[in-house]
């Protein structure tokens, strides 16, 4: 009907009939109903009505029928359709439509409610036009609309007229899109009125349409303000990096902020799906398929020969060099771009009689990786969801301090160290002293620390506090940290129980937002006292002061400022990356002075990302010093009433150079601490420091049998901050120094793995930890891998960022994973030399079989891979260049398919092989394009956990009956990743590399036979993995 000109015909009929002396309403009313229906489908209906003068005619009819309810109702239905077009809505406003409607919209009544509803809906549609909204503000309609809302709200106790109340609120919402509208709303006490009328109705599901709009209005009209910081630029600066201009603080006015007319939805029901942006896909076939030239002189690549001694030296020469490391004194004056030569001298920080290393590998009961293939762990226990007053520590079973099942030694030491004698303040953040006895701490504290260290769990694999302290003294930080975080010094043991994702309470976000708004309109109980700051001095606090005490000046620590808002509520601001004014996400800090069984609310108010897994079951991590000293040292997921939402803070246009002010987001969570006067550490995710890595590598090297395992730990280069970036080589020693055995050793293909280019992605380091420990283990799969490959591993590409608590950048303020196209040795040394090493391997015909860069992902669940494919990219972009004309090696999909079958945490459905323009300078894309490595990947591990596979519904939970479960099965959203699951993923990745080789046509018959025997003996269900590709 529309395509045949039906709209025009009906509109013309309306005009003609309305202009007669006595319109026939028996015809007009059906005509108006028909127009109201057709108008919803005709996109040009408003313009047609304007051209045929139907707008004026309908307004005239409405005015004539103010006392004839049925006639007026039909006119309003037609006007509602006309007003849906902004252009025609503006014209209706000029012609007095709003004044007419306000005559129809009366205070509360139970009469003519159908007409009143239609009139409020027409008015709401008209106010989408900015000109109408301005007219409403100028004529003082805001206060009138607020009074109407109050009247209907107070009288409609049965909630019979929710749609009228919603339409009135929509009118206010559209007006609030204008700055003048917000000002008028605030002047009319709109915040107070909406807050008072709604605060007691938040749990009423029948009022959902009203509450949702109220929330949007309050968030729109909350006065925008700058963050309570002197400057957005990091509190830490590194003078040798590229300079960053710091303008003096700017006093903000309303004009500094963006118009902020966007609709802010309630994230209580938001989908977490992250959609790919097709307009970012690279469609230039030349850029996708061409191989750029070398980015440096070819002769410069020869310096990397020193990092591949396994290809040239015989093993007698390597006996005394394996695991060479530079001492602190030797690296102190080393050039940033120095690459150690094969004869770099060896240094040790401590000798064997000074430390209690032992044989960690033998002390760790290892389970074969084959027993953990994607069938779930049958012995996995699940803790209940944490709520107020519930501590996950209650579910952790411990036999003293892990020394022996009897715990005799542990108990005797504990008997002499009463809890009352613990100086938690001194113990919780020990100094990096050369020895505890010679430290600047009080003698009693040093003696107590020595006694406590005697109780340290010796079975904590690959960790030693004394060695950690020695390594920490070598670590160089911008702020010259002198303290160590207790969790990193003491160590972490994964809890015995896995933790499910937090079940989010419906409506928790709006409750928190209303509490924020109460600060503005009812500030009587607001303290607003700075209790910690890196930028300024704050009042010295008495030890008995009624507030928490914060600290973050330690490795990987990040907390810039803490403000006590109310007695048990604190606003927290995290530091931006060094030499940067952005990338606020990672946090890691100590808090003391708490009361047990008391809920504390923490609000991190300067987050940047628009959404977070904290909205979908993720919890922060907590480490209790008292729990550790009681024999339960470990990070656990903790917190409840967690949500993440946009707040009222904005960055001024003076900072952004005239662009719209950046929005900030709040992460809010409540914590109930397990002990009084404890020292607890809170972190975004399980921390893993640079010093932890260096300690781990040292202990790994000493755990291997050098006659069987080739383990070489050397220095790739020095970072900008003067810290050595480690490079690890792992393989199997040749059976002898015979020519045949050396040749077989040197012909092994390379696998290259990197991690932690983004400092805040600590989960990548836990995956890398699992990879390293598995590769040096006695697991038969690990032995096969060592005998058939040489692994080149750079476990931490951004040591400086990790050390200084950055989330994304290096000390130069740059995202190093956007520097692979043209890295410079003086600004991005680790990327420059990592790329150089890869170029060297390619230049000698030893391109890696697989290159994989381990990362963490903040907005998706599970573990997945990003790869590179020309065909898939062009197909997804619907490019005019036919993908069928291009040839491409499709083996890039094989490894993720293997991992999807093997690893409990991995999912193929989240993998992507698209090449985006914005990722052109990442490691994955550059290694694929420039080095021709078809299997070049980024492996992303969720900060949150799994919502698929064995870790979605734990096997034992599935076997329980409904009566045995504490809550329905559907309420278990999945498993949050612990360090165990992340390390397991690292081992599974290695198993995937073996099966990838078994599926290749180049796989040797000897390897295939050995692997088949091993895999079949371990698990018959793995047979299908051994089927070769056609």
TrEMBL record:
Family: Belongs to the peptidase M14 family.
Cofactor(s) this protein requires: Zn(2+)
EC number, UniProt record: 3.4.17.24
Family annotation (CDD domains): M14_Nna1
Name this polypeptide is given: tubulin-glutamate carboxypeptidase
Sequence ranges of Low complexity compositional bias: 398-407
GO cellular component, one term: cytosol
Skewed-composition ranges (Polar residues): 384-397
Localization annotation: Cytoplasm, Cytosol
Keyword Thylakoid in record: no
Peptidase M14 domain boundaries: 686-997
Alphabetical GO biological process terms: proteolysis
UniProt organism field: Catagonus wagneri
Composition-biased stretches (Acidic residues): 254-283
Region (Disordered): 254-292, 384-407
Molecular function as annotated in GO: metallocarboxypeptidase activity; zinc ion binding
UniProt enzyme class: hydrolase
């Amino acid at each position: 009907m529309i395509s045949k000109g039906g709209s025009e015909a009906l509109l013309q009929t309306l005009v003609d009939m309305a202009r007669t002396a006595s319109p026939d309403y028996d015809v007009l009313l059906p005509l108006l109903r028909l127009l109201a229906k057709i108008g919803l489908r005709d996109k040009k209906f408003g313009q047609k009505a304007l051209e045929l003068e139907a707008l004026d005619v309908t307004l005239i009819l409405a005015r004539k029928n103010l006392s004839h309810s049925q006639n007026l109702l039909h006119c309003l239905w037609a006007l509602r359709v006309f007003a849906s077009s902004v252009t025609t809505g503006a014209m209706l406003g000029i012609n007095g439509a709003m004044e007419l409607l306000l005559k129809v919209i009366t205070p509360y009544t139970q009469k003519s409610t159908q007409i009143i509803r239609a009139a409020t809906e027409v008015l709401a549609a008209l106010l989408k036009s900015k000109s109408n909204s301005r007219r409403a503000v100028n004529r003082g309609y805001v206060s009138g609309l607020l009074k109407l809302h109050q009247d209907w709200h107070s009288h409609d106790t049965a909630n019979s007229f929710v749609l009228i109340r919603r339409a009135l609120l929509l009118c206010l919402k559209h007006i609030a899109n204008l700055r003048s509208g917000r000002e008028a709303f605030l002047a009319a006490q709109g915040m107070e009125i909406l807050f008072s009328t709604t605060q007691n109705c938040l749990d009423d599901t029948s009022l959902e349409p009203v509450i949702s709009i109220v929330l949007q209005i309050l968030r729109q009209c909350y006065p925008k303000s700058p963050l309570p910081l002197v400057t957005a630029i990091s509190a830490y600066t590194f003078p040798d990096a590229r300079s960053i201009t710091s303008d003096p603080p700017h006093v903000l006015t309303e004009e500094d902020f963006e118009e902020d007319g966007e609709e802010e939805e309630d994230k209580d029901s938001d989908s977490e799906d992250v959609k790919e942006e097709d307009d970012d896909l690279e469609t230039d076939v030349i850029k996708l398929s061409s191989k750029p030239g070398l980015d440096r002189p070819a002769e410069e690549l020869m310096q990397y020969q020193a990092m591949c001694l396994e290809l040239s030296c015989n093993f007698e020469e390597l006996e005394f060099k394996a695991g060479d490391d530079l001492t602190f004194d030797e690296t102190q004056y080393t050039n940033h771009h120095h690459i150690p030569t094969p004869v770099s001298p060896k240094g040790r920080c401590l000798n064997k009689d000074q430390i209690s290393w032992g044989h960690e590998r033998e002390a760790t009961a290892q389970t074969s990786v084959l027993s953990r293939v994607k069938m779930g762990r049958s012995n996995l226990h699940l803790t209940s969801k944490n709520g107020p007053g519930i501590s996950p520590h209650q579910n952790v079973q411990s036999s003293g301090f892990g020394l022996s099942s009897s715990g005799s030694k542990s108990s005797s030491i504990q008997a002499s160290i009463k809890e009352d004698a613990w100086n938690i303040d001194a113990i919780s953040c020990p100094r990096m002293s050369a020895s505890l006895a010679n430290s600047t701490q009080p003698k009693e504290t040093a003696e107590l620390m020595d006694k406590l260290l005697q109780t340290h769990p010796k079975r904590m694999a690959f960790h030693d506090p004394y060695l950690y302290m020695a390594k920490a003294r070598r670590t160089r930080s911008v702020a010259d940290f002198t303290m160590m975080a207790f969790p990193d010094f003491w160590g972490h043991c994964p809890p015995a129980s896995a933790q499910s994702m937090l079940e989010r309470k419906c409506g928790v976000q709006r409750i928190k937002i209303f509490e924020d708004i109460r600060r503005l309109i009812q500030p009587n109980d607001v303290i607003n006292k700075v209790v910690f700051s890196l930028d300024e001095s704050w009042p010295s606090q008495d030890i008995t002061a009624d507030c928490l005490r914060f600290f973050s000046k330690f490795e990987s620590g990040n907390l810039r400022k803490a403000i006590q808002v109310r007695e048990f509520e604190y606003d927290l601001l995290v530091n931006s990356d060094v030499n940067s004014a952005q990338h606020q996400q990672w946090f890691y800090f100590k808090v003391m002075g708490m009361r047990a069984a008391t809920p504390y609310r923490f609000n991190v108010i300067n987050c940047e990302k628009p959404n977070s897994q904290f909205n979908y079951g993720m919890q922060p991590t907590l480490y209790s010093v008292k729990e550790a000293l009681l024999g339960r040292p470990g990070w656990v997921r903790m917190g409840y009433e967690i949500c993440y939402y946009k707040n009222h803070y904005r960055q001024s246009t003076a900072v952004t150079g005239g662009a719209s002010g950046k929005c900030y987001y709040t992460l809010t969570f409540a914590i109930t601490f397990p002990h009084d006067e404890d020292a607890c550490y809170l972190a975004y995710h399980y921390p893993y420091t640079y010093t932890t890595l260096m300690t781990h590598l040292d202990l790994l090297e000493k755990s291997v049998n050098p006659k069987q395992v080739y383990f070489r730990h050397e220095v790739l280069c020095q970072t900008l901050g003067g810290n050595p970036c480690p490079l690890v080589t792992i393989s199997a020693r040749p059976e002898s120094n015979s020519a045949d055995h050396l040749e077989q050793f040197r012909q092994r293909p390379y696998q290259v793995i990197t991690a932690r280019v983004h400092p805040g992605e600590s989960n990548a380091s836990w995956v890398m930890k699992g990879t390293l420990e598995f590769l040096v283990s006695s697991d038969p799969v690990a032995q096969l891998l060592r005998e058939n490959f040489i692994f080149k591993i750079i476990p931490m590409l951004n040591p400086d960022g990790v050390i200084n608590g950055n989330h994304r950048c290096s000390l130069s303020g740059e995202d190093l994973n956007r520097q692979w196209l043209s890295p410079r040795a003086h600004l991005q040394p680790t990327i420059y030399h990592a790329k150089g090493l890869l170029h060297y391997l390619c230049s000698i015909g030893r391109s890696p079989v697989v290159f994989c860069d381990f990362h963490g992902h903040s907005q998706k669940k599970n573990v997945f891979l990003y790869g590179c494919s020309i065909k898939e990219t062009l197909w997804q972009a619907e490019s005019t260049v036919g993908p069928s004309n291009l040839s491409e090696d499709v083996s890039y999909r094989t490894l993720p398919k293997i991992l999807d079958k093997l690893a409990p945490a991995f999912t193929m459905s989240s993998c992507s092989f698209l090449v985006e323009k914005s990722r052109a300078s990442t490691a994955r894309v550059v290694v694929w394009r420039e080095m021709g490595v078809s299997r070049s990947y980024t492996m992303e591990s969720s900060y949150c956990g799994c919502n698929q596979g064995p870790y979605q519904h734990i096997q034992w939970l599935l076997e329980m009956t409904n009566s045995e479960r504490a809550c329905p099965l559907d309420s278990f959203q999945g498993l949050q990743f612990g360090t165990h699951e992340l390390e397991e993923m690292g081992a599974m990745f290695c198993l995937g590399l073996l099966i990838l080789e078994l599926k290749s046509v180049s796989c040797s018959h000897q390897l295939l036979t050995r692997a088949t025997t091993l895999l079949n003996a371990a698990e018959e269900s793995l047979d299908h993995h051994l089927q070769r590709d056609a």
